[in-house]
Amino acid sequence: MQLSEGKMMPPIGSNTLKYEYVVLNKEKYETRPFGSDIGVTFTVDGVLELESVNVEYDIIKKRLAEKLSWSKYSDFPYYKKLADLQADNYITTNYESYIKDYFVDKGYSVKEPINPCIRERAHYNVVKGNRTIRLWNIHGSIEYHESIMLGLFEYCDYVRGFKKLLKEDYSWLNVMINSDVFILGFGLGYEEIDLWYFLVSRKRLFHDRKESANRIVYYAIEDKSYDIGKIKMLEALDVEVVSIPFDWSETAYQKAYDFIYDRIQKSINK
Predict the structure, then answer these.
(1) How far is CA 161 from CA 151, 156, 157, in A?
(2) d(Cα 2, Cα 206) in Å, to the nearest integer?
(3) How far apart are CA 89 and CA 58, in angstroms?
(4) Which H or E element spans position 201?
(5) In 113-214, which ranges are E strands?
(6) Are 111 and 125 in contact, with CB atoms under 8 Å apart?
(7) What torsion, rounded to 10 degrees, do the Cα atoms 235, 239, 242, 246 define?
């Protein structure tokens, strides 16, 4: 992340804290690029010119939603393969609606969103015949910019309600504790405190019940992001880790994801 006038964002390792730095820092500056896996750039005004921190966050969320809305799933062919796996639930930390858009183009109808601004329960049902698939944007959606989750403060506020939600019937946490779960294309950085809290809570819950946990599989591509410490931590939390060889060729990611999709498809069709 670069600042105006040639200044650089300090090397803050956590993405959630980077947002707090931008909003709460007492300098007036512009930031670019900012907050997206697909290279989105936009300008953020200094907080001192605004009425409150909450106003600043709302501006960031609106601009982020506007920029992300320009891209389409056709720009990312692996979303098509992901949708074609025909899982019962798709859970993403991304804000975009690529998978929903693809299902619409495949002839599915989309029901009105359920609880669109309550992240723990917000989801779409896409329906075709007697087939219903649920789509969850657990960090918010560009279609409801106010639902987008940014910054450490919002992450921590989000996690506060998880203990109660784990005991309720319907939320994404409930889905992830009562289904086979396959995690791919996600770095699962340590700043993702909501997901790490969920995994720790799941381990404690099944330990207290003296039951075997549901199956969660994490596909770890052996590229530069491969982290043996993270792998060991996930295994300690009863997550099955599948390490995917990476040959550093131009087609390395294509081969890795083709392998992952094939493995998941076989598991779903058992």
Answers:
(1) 17, 10, 8
(2) 45
(3) 29
(4) helix 193-209
(5) 124-128, 131-137, 181-183
(6) yes
(7) -70
The CA distance from 101 to 96, in Å, is 10
pLDDT attached to residue 53? 53
Q: Are 80 and 73 in contact (CB under 8 A)?
A: yes
Phi, psi (rounded to 5 degrees) for 57: -60, -40
The pLDDT, as a whole number, for residue 261 is 92
What residues in the chain have per-residue pLDDT under 70? 1-9, 25-56
Check residue 161 and give its pLDDT.
84
Identify which of 143, 142, 145, 125 has the alpha carbon closest to the alpha carbon of residue 134.
Answer: 125
Q: Specify the pTM.
A: 0.83
183/198 Cα distance (integer angstroms)? 14
The ranges assigned to domains in the chain are 2-68, 180-270
Smallest Cα–Cα separation from 220: which of 169, 177, 268, 184?
Answer: 184
Structural tokens at position 6: 């040639």
Q: Would the CA dihedral through 77, 19, 189, 170 be positive or negative?
A: negative
31-53: pLDDT as tens digits: 443 333 333 333 344 333 334 45
Q: What is the pLDDT of residue 51?
A: 41
Name the residue with tokens 């025909």.
Answer: 86
153-186 burial, b for 16+ CB within 10 Å, e for fewer?
bbbeebbeeeeebbeeeebbbbbbbeeebbbbbe
3-state secondary structure 84-128: CCCCCEEEECCCCCHHHHHHHHCCCEECCCECCCCCCCCEEEEEE
Report the SS3 class of residue 144: strand
